Amino acid sequence: MGGSGEVDASIQAFFPPTPQSSPAKRPPADDIGDGFTAEEIQVALQPKLPEPWHPPGKYTESDICDLRSGPKAVTFMGRICNLVDVANTPKTSRSARGCVKLCVKDETGATTVRLWYAHHVPALRLGSLVSIWTTHISDGENGTLSSTGAPLYASLFPERDRSCHLMLHENSDDGGMHKRPLGFRKGQPLAGLMTLQNFFDGGCDVPDARILVVVKSIGPKKRVTRKDETVTENINLTVQDDTAEAILGLWGSTAASPIGRPVSENNTNPEAIAAREGWKSGETVLLLQGPGCKLNRSTYLTLTSATIIDVDPDIPDAAWLRRWSVRQRSREAINLPFPEGVFDLAIIKSGPIRCLYTIAELDEFARAAPTETFQGYLSVLITEVKLIEYRKRLMLFSGECCSMPLYANDLVATCKGCEQKVVLRASPKIIGQVMDETAVVGPGRLLFSDRAWRSLLGREPAGLLELGEDEMKYLSDRLLFCRVTLLFGWTGDESVAGGRICVLDVTA
Hints:
The protein has ten helices and 28 strands. It has 508 residues and is an alpha+beta fold. The chain folds into three domains: 60-168, CATH 2.40.50.140; 193-261 and 269-331, CATH 2.40.50.140; 345-387 and 428-507, CATH 2.40.50.140. Strands 8, 9, 10, 11, 12, 13, 14, 15 and 16 form a nine-stranded mixed sheet that branches. One of its GO terms (molecular function) is single-stranded DNA binding. Residues 1-34 are annotated as: Disordered.
C-alpha cells in the first residue's frame, strides 16, 4: 500500500513543541480556607456542655452496710475518707486516662469506689459529701481493688457508662450529714482512740488505732519529682493534740484537700461557700484510723490505702480539742488583734467606780474569778524599750498567717504559706518589761489598742517607719523609765485575748 503524503517518523515529532516563553500565570484566586464554615468553627471552639445526668432506671437507696456483691442498681451517699491515685497498668483500658480509688463511708460502714476518667475528674477532697449510682457491687480481690476496711467496691466510668454516676454535693452540703465515725455510740468512748504520744510510744502497732488531732499549720503546696520521673503534688500539715505534735504528709490528689476552692461572686448559698472552704489552722479536727507512721527526729504520719480519715467528726472529743486549740493558739500568738466590743472605755474614764489596781492585785483578782471580765487603771513604770533593736531586726510590725509568724518594717507582709497579703500591727514586744511596786509584767503580755499606741508613741504606729535613726533613739530614750497610767481591761476568756492585759488607752 502506498500513501499520497509523507509521515515524519522522527522522535522529535512524537513530543509536542516546547513553548518559547513560560505560560502566563493565572490571577490569584480568593483564599478558599480549609473547607469549614464559620458556624462549624464556632461550634468546635465552644463545644456543648455535657448534659445533666438522669438515672436511666430505678435505683434502690441503701446504707453502705446493706450493700451486697452482685448486679443490682443501687445508690448510696457518704463522705470521702480516703483518696488514692491508681497508677495505670497494661490492663488499664485505653479509653481511660486515669483512675482514683475512693473510700466512701457513712455512719454504718465504708466501701471502695474506683472512679475512672477520660477527660475530667471532679474536684474531690477528703471530707466531701458524694452520692454514688452504680449497677454492680463487687468483692475485692485480695485487697488489690479495695481496701481492707472497705472490702466491697464499685467501679465507675461515668464518661463512658451512663448507668453509673458520681455526684459531688457542693451546693447542698450543710456540714452535718455522715459526720460520725464508724462504731461511735453516744455516751461511750470511741474504740481504739488514743493520744498522739501513746500512738508514738507503741500504739502505732495496734490494728485500726485511732488518733484525734487538730491542724496547727498548713505548709506550702509543692511539686515533687519522683525517681521514675513522674511529678506529684505534696503538702505537709503540722497536727497536734494536748500531748504531742507531728507532721502529716498528703500526696497526690489528697494534697488539694486542705486548700479552699474559689466561689463565684454571685453565689450567696452559705452551704456552697462552706463546702468550698479550706481547712483552717487551729480549727479543723482530723480523726485518723490506721495511719502510717515514720518515727525519726520529727514524727511523720502518712495516709495508707487502709487509712480512714474523718474531717471535723461530730463527737464530743473533737469539740473539746477544738476549744483547747483555740485557747492554745491565743496564748502562743505573737500579735493578737485587739478584742472589740468587750470593754467600755467610757465607763473606765467617767464611771461612778474607777478602780486603781496594782499588778499583784490584778493577778489575785484574775485567779479568784477566772471567768470574769473587769477593767480599771494600772500605774506602771516602763523599764525596757526595744524600738532600736526591733528596727534593726526588721521586726517593728508583726502578724500571723497559717500559724506562721510574720515580721517586717512595713504595714503589709506576704505569707510564705498561702502567699496572701497580711496586714501587720505594731509588735507588742517593742515595749519590754513594765513594773510597779508589787510585780512585773513581761514582754508581750500587754495587748495595745490602736488608740493606746497613739497615746503612748505620740503618733500613729505607721509613723515609726518615717523616723530616722536619731529620732527613733530619742523616742526610745524618752519612753524608758517613764511612768504611765494604763486604762486596761481583763477577760478570763483566753480565746479572746490569750491571757493578756488589754490596754485601751495610756495617760501620763
